[in-house]
Amino acid sequence: VLLVIAARDATLYFCFGTLAAMYVLFAIREVGLGPLALGLTIAMGGAGNLIGALWAPRFVAWMGLGKALVTASFAYGLLVFFIPFAPADVYRGAAALMVSQLFGDM
After folding, report:
1. Closest by Cα among 91, 101, 97 to 46
2. Is 19 left (phi over 0), alpha (psi -120 to 50) or beta?
3. pLDDT at residue 79 greater than cutoff 90
4. What is the tens place of the pLDDT at every residue in 8-53?
5. How far is residue 43 CA from its own chain's centroid?
6. What is the DSSP secondary structure assignment for residue 85, as one 8-state letter?
7. Per-residue model confidence (pLDDT) at position 32
8. Are the C-beta atoms of residues 24 and 38 closer than 8 Å to each other?
9. Helix/strand/coil for 20
10. Which of 17, 40, 71, 102 is most buried when burial is the number of CB atoms within 10 A of its CB?
């Protein structure tokens, strides 16, 4: 079980490093976010982390540890998948990225 979790985490963090490097470029060049909008968008991830940390014990108690890990991994992957589909309009694009940050970082 630990080997599977380690392999999942190694893959996740390798891909996340690539995503993090491309995220800022995508948000600025394609969506058209300025520094303030980009900062607020990324800050939504921090809010999502806080909400997720407060909600995690109840989620694990409800689903069980194994199912919670699989469900959270699948949900994260699904939310990250939609980042490239953010509209090239500043307001709608920022809203789409904020939703992805808020719920993807839980």
Report:
1. 101
2. alpha
3. no
4. 889 888 888 888 889 999 999 999 999 999 999 999 999 999 999 9
5. 12
6. G
7. 94
8. yes
9. helix
10. 102
Taking a C-beta distance cutoff of 8 angstroms, is the pair 52, 44 a contact?
Answer: no
User: From CA 70, how far away is CA 88, in angstroms rounded?
Assistant: 32
Q: Which two tokens stand for residue 81?
A: 């998948």
Element (DSSP H or E) covering residue 93? helix 90-104
pLDDT band at 91 (very low <50, low <70, confident <90, very high): very high
List Cβ neighbours of 26 (8 Å cut-off, separation of 6 or more): 83, 84, 86
pLDDT at 17: 87
Burial 67-106 (b: 16+ CB within 10 A, else e): eebeebeeebeebbeebeebeeeeeebbebbbbbbbbbbb
pLDDT digits (tens, 9 = 90+) for 66-78: 899 889 888 888 8
DSSP code for 23: H
CB of 26 closer than 8 Å to CB of 84: yes
Q: With cut-offs at 50, 70 and 90, classify the pLDDT of residue 4.
A: confident
